[in-house]
Write a structure and sequence with these properties.
By secondary structure, the chain is an all-alpha fold. The protein contains two helices and no strands.
Length: 42
């Protein structure tokens, strides 16, 4: 859906999640970080 809105968007996924070993790669060149969790843990 994001590509339909903005064809120039670059999205990189981390299928195994973000951890200490890849956090620098995760934030490299980032303009915005969106927390997209779909649940609330009380």
């Amino acid at each position: 859906m994001a590509s339909a809105i903005n064809p120039e968007i670059r999205i990189k996924t981390f299928p195994k999640g973000v951890n200490k070993e890849n956090q620098n790669e995760f934030f490299e060149g980032v303009d915005a970080y969106v927390d997209g969790l779909d649940f609330l843990c009380i």
